[in-house]
Amino acid sequence: MLFSIRSKLIASLLAVALTVGAVSLYTGVRLLKEHVVGEAANRVRLDLNAASEMYRTRGKTTRMALNITSLGSGFVQAVANRNHPELLYHLRHMAQHAELDFAGITTDNSLMLCRIGPHEAVRVPETNEILLVRLALERKAPVDGTVILSREMLMRENPELAAKAHIPLPAKGDPSGTGAETSGMALAAAVPIFDGNAVIGVLYGGKLLNRSETIVDTVRDTVFQKETYKNRSVGTATIFLNDIRIATNVLTPEGRRAIGTRASAEVKTAVLDQGRNWTERAYVVDDWCITAYEPIEDINGHRIGMLYVGAQEKKYTDIPKNALTLFILITAGGMVLAVSFGFVLANRIMGPVQRLIEASRQVSDGSLQPEIGPIQRGEFGVLQGTFKEMVAAMERRQADSEDKIIQSAKQASVGRLAAGVAHEINNPLTGVLTYTHMLLRRKDLDAEVRTDLETIAAATERVRKIVKGLLDFARQTQLDPEPTDINRIISGTVALLENQALVKGVAVKFIPGENLPLVTLDRNQIQSVMINLVINALDATTAGDSVRIFTAAGVSGTGAARKGIEITVADTGAGVHPDHLGKLFDPFFTTKAVGQGTGLGLSVSQGIVQRHGGQIRVQSELNKGTRFFVWLPVTHTGGQP
Amino acid sequence: MKIVVVDDEEIVLRSCRKILEAEGFEVLMATSVDDALDTIDTQNEPTPFLLLIDVKMPVRDGMQLMRIVKARRPDLPIIVMSGYPTQETIQTAGSLGAAHFIAKPFTPDELLSIVFSVPEVKKNHNH
Ligand SMILES: Nc1ncnc2c1ncn2[C@@H]1O[C@H](COP(=O)(O)OP(=O)(O)OP(=O)(O)O)[C@@H](O)[C@H]1O
Ligand SMILES: [Mg+2]
Fold first, then answer.
1. CATH domain A393-473 topology
2. Do A430 and B12 touch (CB under 8 A)?
3. pLDDT score for A14
4. Does residue A359 line the site of ligand 1, with CB under 6 A?
5. How many interface pairs between A and B have CB atoms less than 8 angstroms apart?
């Protein structure tokens, strides 16, 4: 049972810890997941907007640079004059400042005038095929945007560019089967050159995006602020030509830029074919990312590529994952705590219980001084107190009954002895009494002889009294009970002893209780009890003291609460020495001078009262007085025979 | 008037004789029940007399003697004496027809006052 209480306690604490842990774990992780990952997706979407803005700005910057150059002093003149050195100077200057990979000037019918790079001097007449140039001429206005440059066009501009644009494709997943992407994608602009109102040429320039690191890295570094997670940049940006990565800082597992790899088919369909923006998790090269894609369109609105930004998903999913681990650890810690706490608590509670159980075992084994341990506070202390009281009561009762047994054994043996002795003594005593008294009847006695004979007679009288006392004590007289008014018995007793009291100068007062029930008792025997009690009281008092007797209805103090009456005999006399208090009811215990008392009075009285089923008790204080209480049941049910 | 005293104790018999003879009674002594019955039987003349019987005696006790005597001579007054008077003995003695009861030990005056309170004694005893 003990064990089960302890384990129950621990189990409930454990259950609480577990439930709290599990609930917080579940809700916490769910909230985090939704929140963090959702937040991350939002952020990536915003980042894509920023990236796309940067991308477009790049185009506009190029256009502005071209515009400024075309408006520069002497530039129009140089075009008009075909002043190549001058024009080249302007072009180089511009290309350097605007970070352009290619730049050139055409005539008003798209014939090349000059360009930067190895083919700066155009010898053979050559038409520029860049779409923007034509548009600038048609619209007579600056244009900018993304353009595709074929390998031939690149070769013409600068063979280095063609080489740079050449992106080998991995064999599998190559739909075109060329094994390489040779076209270049560029952010370019073209502005018409006006001489007055007439367009005399076009200034164009652009930046090749293939293998270009500037745009994607700028996006990464500004938007994601160089944030890294597990030694990898959190954010990545990519420019796609169709679905091929041509500029990216997404890395391959080997740590190189993943140029030449393709976007997933899903993304391609959604973004390139359907022209939608894509924001979802996607598997990018070798890792899951939270991604955002948008299509890149050329100036005619054809979808030619994609712009991408993404963030490592792991960084965000790891937050709930780490939180989960943390929660599990906390829960586990809580459980360990619950178990140890439960143990401590169980011991705190069960320790005293165990000790009480041990104590009751000791009691049932007969010990009445069981060890119950330190008294606790609270209800348990009350329990311990009650237990202690119970044991004390048992001890008292045991002592009581032991006393009673000793007392009755004493009385029985003394009784047998007394009966035997008395019976034998009475016969010779008859002789002594007879002869003494017969001698005393003689008239011719010498005075001295007469005195001596009288002494013998008196002494014999004493012997006779002693023997009579012994016999009274020994006689297991049958009771002759009748319903009796106890007050009448006591008044009679008081009347008998009034003279004696008067002589001593002690006031004897009887205060009868009213409406007392009749008590079934042996009148003679109870009277002798009363006589003995009152005589004892008179013996203990001196002139000026008082003896008072009360009667009252009362229930017995011990045992079954039975109806009865209580007689109190109280005196203001010498009192009983505390050492003697326990011996008063012993046969032959007396403090009176030899010949004054046999010490049988109270012993006999006790026997009589007990045979009536009653009790006799004494209370006394030395030099203050003594009280005897006699309790008698209304109907006596035999008592001890 | 004759008084028969029955007791197994010599000293009691002698004490009783001493007291009663001093008052002019004729005292016959018996030390057992059989002895007592003999004594009573030999008194063939119907002289009224008194029995003073002790209760506790060896072989047959006073109570048995009383029963026999009461059966034969219901008119005989009997006084019972005992050195160990209990309520019970007093009651049995009374029911068997004892006129009186006296506890041992007693003084001459106590015995005499009991003896003289028997009506037959008052009637027949002449000093
Ligand atoms: N009222 C009392 N005040 C003081 N002591 C008392 C009182 N009653 C009894 N005692 C003490 O108890 C003792 C025993 O009393 P108990 O009546 O048994 O015998 P006793 O009076 O000495 O002799 P007896 O046999 O003559 O009664 C007395 O000797 C006395 O010391
Ligand atoms: Mg006394």
1. Helix Hairpins (1.10.287)
2. yes
3. 86
4. no
5. 70
- Put simply, the chain A residues between 384 and 423 with a CB less than 8 A from any chain B CB are 419, 422-423
pLDDT, tens digit (0-9, with 9 covering 90-100), for A241-281: 988 999 998 888 888 888 888 888 888 999 999 988 888 88
Nearest protein CA to atom 27 of ligand 1, as residue:
A601
Phi and psi for A274 in degrees, rounded to 5?
-100, -10
What are the CB-based long-range contacts (under 8 Å, 24+) for B30-33? B30/B4, B30/B5, B30/B6, B31/B6, B31/B7, B32/B6, B32/B8, B32/B57, B32/B58, B32/B59, B32/B60, B33/B6, B33/B57, B33/B59, B33/B60, B33/B61, B33/B62, B33/B64, B33/B65, B33/B68
Residue A603 alpha carbon, nearest atom of ligand 1: 18
Q: What is the CATH number of domain A48-324?
A: 3.30.450.20
Burial class (CB in 10 A: 0-12, 13-18, 19+), A118: exposed
Judge whether residue A177 has pLDDT over 60. no
Q: What tens digit of pLDDT does each residue of A31-72 get?
A: 887 887 788 888 888 888 988 998 999 889 999 999 988 888
Question: Domain limits of chain B?
Answer: 2-43+51-124
Nearest residue in chain B measured CA to CA from A464: B105
Was domain B2-43+51-124 assigned CATH 3.40.50.2300?
yes
Which CATH code of 3.40.50.1100, 3.30.565.10, 1.10.1760.20, 3.40.50.261 fits the domain covering A478-633? 3.30.565.10
Q: Give the model's confidence band at A641: pLDDT under 50 very low, under 70 low, under 90 confident, else very high.
A: very low
Domain ranges of chain A: 48-324, 393-473, 478-633
| pLDDT 10s digits, A238-251 | 999 988 999 998 88
A602 lines ligand 1 (CB under 6 A): yes
Indicate whether this model's pTM tops 0.95: no
Q: List C-alpha distances in Å: B87 to A325, A475, A613, B103.
A: 100, 9, 20, 12
Q: How far apart are CA A476 and CA A479, in angstroms?
A: 9
Alpha carbon of A536 to ligand 1 centroid (Å): 5
CB-neighbour burial class of residue A474 (10 A; exposed 0-12, middle 13-18, buried 19+): buried
Atom of ligand 1 nearest to the CA of A533: 8
User: What is the pLDDT at residue A638?
Assistant: 46
Q: Do B105 and A422 touch (CB under 8 A)?
A: no
